[in-house]
Amino acid sequence: MFSILFGLISRTPLRVLRGMSLILTKFLILFKAKQYQVTQKNINHCFGQNSELINNSFRETIDMSLVFPFIWGKKDNFKKLLDTDYIQNKTLDNGRPKLFFTLHMGCVDMLVFIMGELLSQINILYTPAKNKKLEAKLKKIRESGGAKMLPATDNGVKELYKRFLAGENLLIASDLVPHKKGVYEKFFNKECFCIDLIEKLSQKNTHDLYVVYLTKGKEKKYSFKVKKIENQITTKEMNRHFEEAILGAPEIYGWEYKKFRKLRPNNTNIY
To answer: Which runs of E-coded beta strand occur in 103-235?
Structure first.
């Protein structure tokens, strides 16, 4: 069933998908969908009242709900959504092993295929789908581009660390709220519970460190950005890199995610 659905969406022209997305967005805003409410609360918490950004961000979220199956359903479909200059980063495959960190900007699954093409080997930590049949299908699709997907579970993180010690390349989306261990740091001057894995791994000084992410490109496409970090990094500094990336195109960040849900006991839950 999933294969049929992904196949149908992957063959639908992008302009049609975006037209469907626009109609669906208006409907969900009208009825104050749960994701819209979370987006509203997050943006208001970080930036104050900004109705234009809230609506634009939510439209991007709904757009992504159709873009994801578009890239899952057909090999190389991600290239239709990406500026072609990303291929210039083939030199990333040279030299020392690499530790990449990223955030949820735009269609983040595109990074799985981009990194799989640019590097001869890459391990990517990810959150598995709850539906087992869907998860099996998505894992197969994601690994078809050359990446090795490791689930963000206790065993998955252990395997990630083993591969890190073996000198392999890693990519971690580290803007999520950790299930267990983490640290409290500021994100747009608001405290939240943050993943500190990048800080811990960078202190080993065995890998070159990079931040990678998608931002807005030309003609409604994405642009792939890479920035080398010259020194070890703290979680506070990691968040500053995230803020810089977000401010370049704030509407394509994943504001529908409850980033501020795990606060200290004396803080008020914004949700």
So the answer is: 123-126, 148-151, 170-173, 183-187, 190-194, 208-216, 222-229
Phi-psi label, residue 9: left if phi above 0, alpha if psi -120 to 50, beta otherwise: alpha
Phi, psi of 101 (to 5 degrees): -125, 150
**Amino acid letter at 75?**
K
Burial 97-127 (b: 16+ CB within 10 A, else e): ebbbbbbbbbbbbbbbbbbbbbbeebbbbbe
Tens digits of residue pLDDT in 41-85: 999 999 999 999 999 999 999 999 888 989 988 888 999 999 988
Residues whose CB is less than 8 angstroms from the CB of residue 261 and which lie 6 or more positions away in sequence, other chains included: 177, 269, 271
Q: Give the pLDDT of residue 1.
A: 64
Q: How many CB atoms lie within 10 A of CB 51?
A: 10
The owner of tokens 């030199």 is 91
Closest CA to 197 of 214, 217, 172: 172
User: Helices 51-72 and 34-47, interaxial angle, to 10°?
Assistant: 130
Categorize the per-residue pLDDT at 103 as very low, low, confident or very high, splitting at 50, 70 and 90: very high
Does this model's pTM top 0.85? My answer is: yes
At 270, the amino acid letter reads I
Structure tokens at 134: 């869907």
